[in-house]
């Protein structure tokens, strides 16, 4: 019997293009600040002509998490759709160099690989302008049993719920992974994503999910309250593991009626909060796959998110395995 890999992730495969910006520049481009904005290919090309890209990094929410897991010296696979174009080739090399399996390969014939242009302000606030590109084309035909089984945990990106075919792909993957005795984890991704899909998210969580990741705004949105204590009560009612990140206050891990408080690791200067939640999930999931306690998993997540906000980009500058 083959040894199981740690994590199988599914999400929008894309490259992050990082740009320094001010709030005024963000507003000038008609973007919702400190959130994810969907744009088309023409808008993406306009932004890339108008601003200097400081750095390009393989990304996407679950992609960031998967890279973080490899930095902890974990392993796994990533299900995402890309084209054999410049950005797609960059992403493929980036992923395989880190040791991740990318079973779909170049399966988009015409639609370009997705790209997220990140406007990062001096205080670390980031605004995402996302051209989903080929990522929107993922469907149930892309989910194959031999690719998704033999992992310990399946990790789902909430953003994919916006697309009907991607939703079918996620449901197929859930069924295969549950039959393979995997735990199912879901990141709620974004408050606006929850506003679009609250009821179907609730059904998904109730029926299929063992672990959810959310920040303060997202869990409050799910609970339809602005009161964090009421949101915690809602999280307790789910009867699963709910991981809530609350910025500089750290994080909460809720399991049934227990609430574990994890302090944030100190950071001398916050440079860019891009990927903080994604890397927290990387640490947590890595710990869980290795049989660590929930408190240890939270500590790993806190270590990873502290490292990532101390510099530009959502890729660790040091091996996270050396920090634990």
Shape: globular
Query: Biggest sheet: strands, sense, closure?
Result: 8 strands, mixed
Residue stretches low in confidence (pLDDT < 50, at least 5 long) are none
Spatial order of the strands forming the largest sheet: 5-1-10-11-12-13-14-15
What's the end-to-end separation, in Å? 30 Å
E-strand count: 15
Total tally of structural domains = 1
Rounded average pLDDT: 93
Would you identify the CATH H-level superfamily?
Ribokinase
- Compute the CA-based radius of gyration: 18 Å
**CATH topology (fold) name:** UDP-N-acetylmuramoyl-L-alanine:D-glutamate ligase
Q: Strand pairing plus helix content: what structural class?
A: alpha/beta
- Helical coverage, percent range: 25-40%
CATH architectural category: 3-Layer(aba) Sandwich
Total DSSP helices: 11
Order of H and E elements: EEHEHEHEEHEEEHEHEHEHHEEEHH
CATH class: Alpha Beta
